[in-house]
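Design job #97: recover the sequence.
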């Protein structure tokens, strides 16, 4: 194959690839859901406390008043603690636990949470009682019921939510900062209801007593990445039926030739009484407002689709005119076979005229 033919073939392959790519772009949806990020704030934070007296005497009901017991938790802080209690199944139960709910307003059903993490920071002030930090084993778990807001000093354990730690998440600890990555729990806030998250002692792996006191809600840092839900266009609702502004009611006609029986008295059935046709006086102020017809949304492609298709067609026509027929051989001197035939015919006609 000669060099000009090889160059022509390469141009044809490049044009075919460009045309295929343009066609693919036309088939793509008009818009794509792009990933988004946000930094949700805490909309409710609570911590719950079961005192040592309550653990030893469950349940504590009025009028019993437990003795005073210091919490070691400054007002507005959160706490997680374990002091040795366990339930009937052997799972360790918290003496103190923390529950947090984050603002997910705007996340529509169908949103996909790609990542969600939040961080708690230890309160190292002298008024915050942290002990056995190195022995603390805590998890972020999914609450299984709602929970109330508590006063700054904490709430009673009878108000704390139940929770499921089957998919509990351990924190990543860097100094005084505990970070939990919980995309699976956050997804439930979109798919179901936003019950938040709880931080509790690990029910299976806690062995030694400990207490961790964390700074308040304003210091909690959270970040989220998600794919927004795709909102499909919906048809407008049908127009409401016209109403009678005259205050009257339209009687329902009696069909089938039947009649309405009269009252029954003395055990005998009286003859049916004729039913007069009710007449409704027209209202002088009644008016009827025509309802504009609402057309359903067109399913035809948008105007941009047809413009792109027209440009693609013009481009293909130009390519075909420039490149020519790839099967036509090229003669010496860079002339095509068709060009040579036309020149030969022109030469013969000129010779005949001269003769």
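Job complete. Output follows.
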């Amino acid at each position: 194959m000669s060099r000009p033919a090889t160059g022509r073939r390469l141009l044809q392959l490049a044009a075919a690839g460009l045309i295929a790519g343009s066609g693919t772009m036309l088939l793509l949806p008009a818009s794509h859901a792009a990933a988004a990020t946000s930094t949700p704030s805490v909309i409710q934070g609570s911590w719950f406390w079961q005192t040592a007296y309550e653990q030893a005497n469950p349940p504590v009901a009025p009028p019993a008043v437990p003795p005073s017991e210091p919490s070691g938790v400054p007002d507005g802080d959160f706490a997680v603690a374990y002091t040795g209690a366990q339930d009937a199944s052997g799972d360790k139960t918290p003496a103190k636990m923390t529950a947090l709910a984050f603002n997910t307003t705007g996340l529509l059903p169908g949103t996909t949470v790609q990542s969600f993490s939040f961080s708690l920071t230890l309160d190292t002030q002298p008024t915050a009682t942290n002990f056995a930090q190195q022995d603390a084993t805590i998890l972020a778990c999914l609450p299984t019921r709602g929970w109330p807001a508590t006063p700054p000093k904490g709430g009673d354990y009878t108000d704390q939510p139940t929770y499921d730690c089957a998919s509990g998440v351990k924190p990543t600890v860097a100094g005084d900062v505990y970070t939990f990555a919980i995309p699976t729990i956050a997804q439930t806030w979109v798919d179901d209801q936003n019950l938040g998250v709880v931080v509790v002692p690990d029910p299976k792996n806690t062995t030694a007593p400990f207490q961790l006191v964390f700074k308040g809600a304003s210091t909690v840092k959270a970040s989220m990445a998600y794919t927004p839900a795709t909102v499909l266009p919906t048809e407008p609702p049908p127009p409401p039926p016209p109403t009678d502004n005259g205050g009257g009611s339209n009687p329902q006609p009696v069909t089938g030739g039947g009649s309405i029986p009269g009252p029954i008295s003395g055990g005998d059935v009286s003859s049916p009484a004729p039913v007069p046709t009710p007449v409704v006086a027209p209202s002088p102020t009644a008016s009827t407002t025509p309802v504009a017809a609402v057309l359903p949304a067109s399913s035809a492609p948008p105007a941009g689709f047809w413009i792109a298709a027209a440009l693609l067609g013009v481009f293909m026509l130009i390519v075909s005119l420039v490149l020519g027929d790839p099967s036509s051989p090229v003669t010496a001197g860079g002339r095509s076979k068709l060009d040579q035939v036309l020149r030969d015919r022109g030469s013969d006609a000129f010779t005949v005229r001269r003769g």
